Amino acid sequence: MTNRLGGEFCLVCGAEPPLYSDRMCEPCLRTRTSLAKVPQNIPWIRCARCGIVEIQGKWESITDTEVWDELLHRHLEVHPKAEDINIGMETVTVSDRHTLMHIQIEGTIDNLLFQEEHTMRARMANGVCLTCTRRAGNYFEATVQLRSSGRRLTELELTSLRGTLDDVLDKLSDDPMFFITSEGPVTGGYDVVLGSKGLARTWGRHMVTEYGGMIVETNSTVGRKDGVDVTRLTLLYRKPGYEIGDVISWRDHMWRPSAWTKDGALMERIDRQERTGATWRDLESARVIAQRHEFSTVDFINEDASVGEFLDPNVWTMQSVRLPFDHKPGRKGLLARIDGEWLALHHMALDEVPSDGSNGGE
Question: 157 with 220, same domain?
């Protein structure tokens, strides 16, 4: 059939309209157009030590399904004029290293529906991630030193402090650099060597919030890389030698710490109603007189406005003690044995001393 003079026609076969992209008829367009292009083989890398996957230069912990989706979207090249794209995929495991990805894709080009099927082979190679490389080389950025003021940390305290690191790791993002290089007891405390300065600082802040105390940071330069100093952090956490509610000697009087603050503690004086804040530097001279687990709770058999009589639980004889400033008739007494003498303590919320005279729920 001859075309009318000056009429449009397919540049490939001479067919009459309708014409589409590049002035081709539908059969010629379909013959010369691919909706999508995919490579036959796609390499990807998994760490042979920990199993995480390298994604565009970054190591991430993802599932196999997420790996296939990532490879598909990274390597699938769709026609620039395609619209309304729908993609389906099915994977078939060939071996430990090879997986076939069967892809079904459809979309429209110039309002013509295209449907294609492609197959890609994902080929896994073993590698070693940066974290495992650094772990194998004993890499570290920070050392956290756990110590106490004026005494050795007990085993229970060490276990409690070390357990907070696990709590911090559970709450933080899955950063591959948040790892422990080494740890163990040292003279006077416990050292934990970490792969991240950020982890060390976060842990330090957490311990201060939970247990009080102070942190001293020291940075040392160990070399240069790409024109920048490489430094390592030593973070000394010094736990107070006392707990909330203990009796301590400070400024020639006896006090009880009632709460930790950002820079120190709130202190409550025992012999009168007085509360004050103190910094850790102020409290350096504080000395533990009695700890809460050593306190005794007693019933007063006789009492007046200032003195109460009770049965000494150690020798089973009657003793008398000056009542605390906040004492109420019928309230149990909280006593501390100091230098062979009994001292009645004022009531704090954590003491849980019943105010109605009951015996702790009996």
Answer: yes
- Tens digits of residue pLDDT in 284-313: 888 889 988 899 999 999 999 899 999 998
For residue 94, what pLDDT is reported? 93
**How many whole angstroms separate alpha carbon 309 and alpha carbon 347?**
18
**Residues 255, 199 share a domain:** no
Which residues, 6 or more positions from 152, have their beta carbon under 8 angstroms from its beta carbon?
188, 189
Q: Answer yes or no: do 279 and 318 share one domain.
A: no
d(CA 188, CA 194): 20
Distance of CA 47 to the CA centre of its chain: 23
The encoded tokens of residue 104 equal 């079904």
Q: Which domain holds residue 270?
A: 242-289
Number of continuous H segments (helices) and E segments (strands) in the chain: 5, 24
Confirm whether pTM is higher than 0.70: no
State the average pLDDT for the chain.
87
Collapsed DSSP state (helix, strand, coil) of residue 361: coil
Answer whether residue 29 is part of any domain: no
59 and 142 in a single domain? The answer is: no
CA distance 323 to 338: 15
Phi-psi region of 210 (alpha: psi -120 to 50; beta: other; left: phi over 0): alpha
Instruction: Give every CB contact of residue 126 below 8 A, 6+ residues apart in sequence.
Output: 45, 46, 47, 48
By the 10 Å C-beta count (0-12 exposed, 13-18 middle, 19+ buried), 161 is classed as buried
CB-count exposure of residue 286 (10 Å: 0-12, 13-18, 19+)? buried
Sequence-ordered list of residues with C-beta below 8 angstroms from that of 155, at least 6 positions apart, any chain: none
DSSP conformation letters of 175-214: -TT--EEEEEEETTEEEEEES-HHHHHHHHHHHHHHH--E
